[in-house]
Amino acid sequence: MFRIKICGVTQSRDVEPIGRAGADAIGLNFVPASRRFIAIDAARAISAIASEQKLARVGVFVNETLERIAEIHREVGLDWIQLHGDEPDEAVNGLKRMLPGVKICRALRWESGFADDIGPIVAHWDASAIDALLVDAFAPDAYGGTGKVVDWSKARELAASLKKPLVLAGGLTPDNVAAAIEAVSPAAVDTASGVELEPGVKSHSQVEAFAAAARAAFANTG
User: Fold this and answer.
1) Are 132 and 187 in contact (CB under 8 A)?
2) Whole-angstrom Cα distance, residue 131 to residue 164?
3) Is residue 114 scored above 80 in pLDDT?
4) Which conformational region is residue 136 in: left (phi greater than 0), alpha (psi within -120 to 50 degrees), or beta?
5) Collapsing DSSP states into helix, strand and coil, what is residue 108?
6) Annotated catalytic sites, by residue?
7) Could you give the CA distance from residue 71 to residue 48 in angstroms, rounded to a whole number?
8) I need a labelling partner for 165 at 20 to 30 A (CA). Which of 122, 142, 152, 221 fits?
9) CA 109 to CA 107: how far, in whole Å?
10) Where are the domains of the chain?
11) What pLDDT is attached to residue 30?
């Protein structure tokens, strides 16, 4: 399981600095409407560098067909598939059948005031075939990468109750990631806009600061 994921990578030159900074996963966004969308050829080149850097490669999809996800998985070489849309549970089961051994991270877009009782959410996802649950902030016009922050108190409750690893996303930056880890105790953290010069182009100094802060916070929280 990865701990520090830098998502929305589109530039080959960003990959080695991400690895040197101490992150252990990158996200490749295959959502055509996204500002961080990456074409297959570019993704394949980045994936090869990431493999050399021992970085987990996470493919991000929104409401894509299972056949297309499987095709990209084979062409690019992915370690994880992240479903960040409105995919039904059967999509997870279908991918597990089509791609034995693949790990699946399911995104839960957490709306303000959503689900005062998290019991049913915990029961549902613990019973599912996912390997990790990612919590991101809800936005009506976007599937992630908005910079909005999740309700950390609710995320902590979910992380403490869930048997599956919880990945915390949503507005994480070098300035707040340590506080987020201390508040939520997630298994991993994920950022995109929090370490960018512009969408898809990473600031190497911000990546380094984010990874250092996250590593220190994880060390302190165990």
Assistant:
1) yes
2) 7
3) no
4) beta
5) strand
6) 7, 136
7) 17
8) 142
9) 6
10) 4-221
11) 98
